[in-house]
């Protein structure tokens, strides 16, 4: 998987969110949401198991995982749409919320399928929550128009929902939630119903809204690309548990186990055994091949441990015979097995002593011989627990 490129100013964090990324211990005043030891069951099915998280004010947090991982269930718990089977602590802005119903929580949710009222106009949809809160009509109208301007729909107050495109409907859903000024905006796969071009445009729109409002966003998605592009921090979930959490670059470059490596798109993963340890630099053998890489697991390994060795296709290069080679590089003889033209790059499969290795070559006009050498740096090789 190719990491999306983000310009340095794409993420503008609050001071507290920035300290979260820097790894500083949070002050209680910085926290908008705190959950400890949350469990939830549907009969005998465990949906969430011992989930704990802390969310800072102004943070863009993403819950990432495949279908059934528990991410949407956790979002529903935060929204108050479901109550946990058990929980140690559950506070929103310092107030206990474990069993407080949804209409008494200062959060708002944007769903994948919008949930708009087709018989109401755009403006009436945006005003709906304000109407429930008994805000006077003139003030409702003013706030709705301000919010529609913010989401670039200022001329559509009187338009019918059925007359809108998918991207416009999503903006109306955002405006309807944002006009309530929630402490946290919850977004449950909000871009899932859009085509690729619209999804990319809406990612930029959401980042701009977050930057403008300084509000806390908690975003649910199964898309690694969305999570990497927009998040300050990601929680990767599987089978109701948090597998790994950290900055986008932590999950992308330093997965803590094989599941995280596979989910985050590391195409080349082989089983091996630890033969030597030099700090975080690990020597290992796989299929009789000696390799070196960086340990990124949660606990240190021991010699003889069974491990997985993983590296990304775009980090594998063709070794040039006459070019000087970095000393900290894994090098193997390989044979061409297949190549697929992808426009900007070539996807290549090479057969080597490790098995089949995938390469992504950005020079799409490169001429490949039947036999060649491949290389990738120790720093681009992760060694993680096998299971």
Topology:
Blueprint: H1 15-22, E1 31-42, E2 45-56, E3 60-64, H2 71-79, E4 89-92, E5 95-96, E6 107-111, H3 122-132, H4 137-150, H5 166-178, E7 184-188, H6 196-213, E8 216-221, H7 224-230, E9 233-238, E10 241-246, H8 248-253, H9 258-263, E11 268-278, E12 281-286, E13 289-295, E14 306-311, E15 317-318, E16 329-341, E17 346-352, E18 355-361, E19 371-377, E20 381-385
Parallel strand pairs: 3-8, 3-9, 6-7, 7-8, 13-20
Antiparallel strand pairs: 1-2, 1-4, 4-5, 9-10, 11-12, 11-14, 12-13, 14-20, 15-19, 16-17, 16-19, 17-18
Quick overview:
The protein has 387 residues and is α+β, with helices and mostly antiparallel strands. It has helices at residues 15-22, 71-79, 122-132, 137-150, 166-178, 196-213, 224-230, 248-253, 258-263, and strands spanning 31-42, 45-56, 60-64, 89-92, 95-96, 107-111, 184-188, 216-221, 233-238, 241-246, 268-278, 281-286, 289-295, 306-311, 317-318, 329-341, 346-352, 355-361, 371-377, 381-385.
Give the helices and strands as they follow along the chain.
HEEEHEEEHHHEHEHEEHHEEEEEEEEEE
End-to-end distance: 22 Å
Q: Give the CA-based shape.
A: globular
Structural class: alpha+beta
Strand % is 25-35%
* Helical residues, percent: 10-25%
The tally of domains stands at 2
User: Care to count the β-strands?
Assistant: 20
Most strands sheet: 6 strands, mixed
CATH topology of the largest domain: Rossmann fold
**Mean pLDDT across every amino acid position:** 89
Q: CATH superfamily membership of the largest domain, which one?
A: P-loop containing nucleotide triphosphate hydrolases
Oligomer: single chain
Contiguous runs where pLDDT drops below 50 for at least 5 residues: 1-25
- Rg, please? 24 Å
Q: How many helix segments?
A: 9
CATH architectural group of the largest domain: 3-Layer(aba) Sandwich
Specify the CATH class of the largest domain.
Answer: Alpha Beta
Strand order of the largest sheet: 6-7-8-3-9-10
